[in-house]
Amino acid sequence: MAPSILESRPFPQVTTGELPRNELCTKYRGDMLSGVGVSIFIFGNKQDQKTGKTIGANGMKEEFDISINNGAIPIPVGATGFTTHELWEITPLSLQELFCTIKGGVRLNIKKS
Prior knowledge:
The protein is an alpha+beta fold. Helices cover 33% and strands 19% of the residues. The protein has helices at residues 21-33, 59-69, 82-90, 95-98; strands at residues 38-41, 45-47, 54-56, 73-76, 99-102, 105-108.
């Protein structure tokens, strides 16, 4: 059995190498979320480079989708606002709705956006 750990990783702010930033971010997300059983999502905001306003972080939706595709349990803390609130809106409100028991295991019942 793998050890139980809580891991928090900062997102890279600069690029190195030959990968374009969007591809580097997607690769980083995949690596970050490989092998996790639970993904906790908080805030999900960033500063708009043009206006300076705080806006939702579009990459968090990609992280949410990767988590679901990997079979992890997604937990968006909607009260923190921004993208997590949007993710909370598409996540069923009760554990009974979230985890539908099926033969041989558990299936996530997440509404696709």
